[in-house]
Amino acid sequence: MAKKITRRDFLKVSGIAGTSLIGGPALLGLSRGPTRAWGATEPIKIGGIYSLSGVVAAWGRAARMGSSMAAQEINEAGGILGRKIVLKFEDDSVNPEVGARKARRLVLDWGADFLHGFNSSGVALGVVPLLEEELKRMCLIPCAASPRITTEAFNKYVFRVHPNCYQIGAGSAAIAAKMPYKKWTVIGPDYSYGWDSWGAFISHLTQRRSDVEALEIQAWPKFATGDYSSYITKLLGAKPEGVYSSLWGGDFVTFAKQAKRYGFFENVSAFMTPAGLALDSFSALAIKRGKESEMPEGLYTAAHGYWFEHPATERNKTWVGDFQDRYGEPPHIVAHDAYGLIYVYKKAIEKAGTTKTDAVIEAMEGMAFETPGYSRVIRKEDHQAISDVPWGYTKKAPELAGFLGAMRVTEIKDSTGGEIIEPLEDVLERRAKKEKPPWMKFIVKG
Amino acid sequence: MEPILQTQNLTKSFGHLMAVNRVSLDFKEGELTSIIGPNGAGKTTLFNLISGKTKASAGKIRFKGDDITKLAPYEIVRKGIGRIFQITNLFPELTVYENVRVPVLARKRETSRLLSLDRSLRDVNEETSRILGLIGLSEKSDITCNALSHGDQRLVETGVALALEPVLLLLDEPTGGMGPEETDEMVKFVRGLNENRNITIILVEHDMRVVFSISDRIIVMHSGGVIADGKPDEIQADERVKEAYLGR
Amino acid sequence: MEKSRSIIWGKNRFYGVALALLALVLVPFFLSDFLVVFATEMLIMVLFALSFNLLFGYTGLLSFGHAAYFSIGAYGTGLFLSRVSPSLLLAFLIGIVFSFIVAFLIGYFCVRLDEIYFAMLTLAFGMMVHAILWKWDSLTGGADGLVGIPRPKFSILLATIEFSSIPGYYYLTLVVVGICVFILWRVSRSPFGLVLKSIRENHERVEFLGIAMRRYRLGAFVISGTFCGVAGALFAPFERSIAPDISFWTKSAEPVFMSLLGGTKVFFGPAVGASLFMYLREIISGYTELWMIYLGAILIAFVIFLPGGILGFISDKLNAGRRGT
Amino acid sequence: MDYDTFVLFFLNGLTNAMTLFIIASGLSLIFGVLRILNLAHGSLFMLGAYFAFQFTHWFGSFWFALIFAPLVCAAIGIIIERFLVRPVYGIHITFQLLLTFGIILLVTDLVRLFWGVSYLTVSESEVLQGATSMLGVAYPKYNLFVIVMGIFIGFLIWFLLSKTRVGKMVRAASSDREVAGGLGINVPRVYTLVFAFGAWLAGLGGVLAAPLRSLMLELDVHTIVEAFVVVVIGGLGSIPGAFIGSFLLGQLNAFGTLYFSRYEMAFMYVLMAVVLIIRPHGLFGERIA
Question: In D, which residues are within 8 Å of C299 by CB distance?
Answer without folding.
Answer: 98-99, 101-102, 105
